[in-house]
Amino acid sequence: MRIDPDRKLDFEDVLIRPKRSRLKSRAEVSLERTFLVPHSDKKITGIPLIAANMDTVGTLDMAKALAGHQIFTSLHKHYALDDLKAANISTDFSFVTFGIEDHDRIDGMMAALGADKICLDVANGYTEHFVDFVREVRRHHPDKIIMAGNVATPDMTEALILAGADIVKVGIGPGSACMTRAMTGIGYPQLSTIIECADAAHGLAGLICADGGCRMPGDVSKAFGAGADFVMLGGMLAGHTECLTAEQKAALKDDDMIEYYGMSSEVAMNKYAGGMAEHRASEGRIVQVAYKGDVKATVQEILGGLRSACTYVGAAKLKEFSKRVTFVVKN
Ligand code: 5GP
């Protein structure tokens, strides 16, 4: 056993110090970014927020709504190919998600959709098996953008980039519907995860997506301030019209509560895995969120908060933001 004596930080442990600025208004701030990726000559352009690949958030309706704001969606992996094809979603702003699965299926789906962004998502990205899988997917798809995770430390961020990931999804345990910390004791404070993994990724010309733990717009600013290239949101985008199935929409009342649940929760296991296997315990929570209406208003709040944060530190572009951020640690 060993104890790491360095203090590690979560979003709630810090604030961003205001700085003198030449900006007159938040309207002058540009949130759009263009990234080069390390493994192909592809570029990725947009506002670097990504709706989480959870079946209550990464929906086709969400992808349509967010693409209109130049925001990305990682579509959840339980859609049938025909549904994805029929939806005609923007490939510019959509990631197609897979777990560890058959390469023929991945190759077939990507070809049929004409999509160029792959999200390889497992709860625990620390296994050699996953690293080998990422390497193999890269071999099959030399010209695609690959995001892979989740991990929470620089060593594994580097391992995944070297294996073929362009973007490493970082976050073990911070999610609002996540019970990993409670059930296993495993985790890493998310702000420190972002700071340490961004440093590792950027050293290899790779990118990171900070996944989980943002509960309010200020947390999104802190994630970007810490060096995240992309920020993935689950709970903040849950409970909107775009999260609902057609049947749920038809029965909807304004004061309804909407169910948001982790993808390892009992609800998800019953839905997709034929129930909870005997050797497993649920690491996902079931949360009821009040119906929030269309996602547009929430998007405006998040982007408004981010623009304002950029203004407070004098960053005219999101690209400059983390360079201008000084965190102060609260007591
Ligand atoms: P949030 O934005 O709600 O704080 O976090 C969203 C993230 O939580 C997702 O992108 C995913 O990484 C993580 N997540 C989703 N479902 C589960 C689950 O059942 N268990 C755990 N441990 N994490 C989950």
Structure commentary:
35% of the residues lie in helices and 19% in strands. It has twelve helices and 13 strands. Strands 3-4-5-6-7-8-9-10 form an eight-stranded parallel β-barrel, surrounded by four helices. A two-stranded antiparallel sheet has the order 1-13. Helix 8 (217-225) crosses helix 11 (295-313). The model has no long low-confidence stretch (mean pLDDT 96). The site of guanosine-5'-monophosphate (5GP) has 25 residues, from strand 10.
Q: Beta fraction of the residues?
A: 15-25%
Average pLDDT works out at 96
| Largest sheet report | 8 strands, parallel, barrel
Count of helix runs: 12
What's the total count of β strands?
13
- Could you please say which CATH topology applies here? TIM Barrel
- Rg, nearest Å: 19 Å
Shape: globular
Helix-and-strand structural type: alpha/beta
Low-confidence stretches: none
Q: How many domains?
A: 1
The CATH H-level superfamily is Aldolase class I
Task: Report, as a whole number of angstroms, the end-to-end distance.
Answer: 28 Å
The helix/strand order is: EEEHEHEHEHEHEHHEHEHEHEHHE
Helix content: 25-40%
Strand order of the largest sheet: 3-4-5-6-7-8-9-10
